[in-house]
Amino acid sequence: MVQRTLAILKPDCVRKNLIGKVIKKFEDENFKIIAMKLVKLNSKTAGEFYAVHKDKPFYYDLLSFMSSGPCVPIVLEKENAIEEFRKVIGATDPAKADDGTIRKLYADSKEQNIVHGSDAPETANYEIQYFFSMKELVENDDKN
Ligand code: GDP
Description:
Elements: E1 2-9, H1 11-15, H2 19-28, E2 32-36, H3 43-49, H4 59-66, E3 72-79, H5 81-89, H6 102-106, E4 115-117, H7 121-131
Antiparallel strand pairs: 1-3, 1-4, 2-3
Helix pairs in contact: 3-4
């Protein structure tokens, strides 16, 4: 089933000038870009986005990190996109991520781990709508 997932190039990715390299990995893995923008979150908007983590001990650190600079939310489409994208980014902790994954290649820590990827269809829908209106989602007419 063709699915959509939400990726975010996190503030560490933008600061380290890795936007191009990370998007290249998405393209190499045949994800189609459906929508993309550069935004700067603040503690309120980051808190809304990460509301599922509000009881975690790292919640306030995460909000502070995610609002520390611009980030790049991207909607990606592919067959089985949610699970496939999680494979491409690797485990949350880069020390535990498989070789060749984005987090293994570029991430510094469990918190500053370069990229976000939705973990389930319900969260993907919420996350996509959090950043993009219907009008901003481009129809993928790729026939491949
Ligand atoms: P993900 O789905 O792989 O992104 O991981 P989670 O949903 O568990 O956590 C969301 C984000 O919170 C992660 O991507 C990290 O940026 C951050 N995070 C997760 N675990 C920790 C932790 O133990 N400490 C800190 N400081 N941040 C964490």
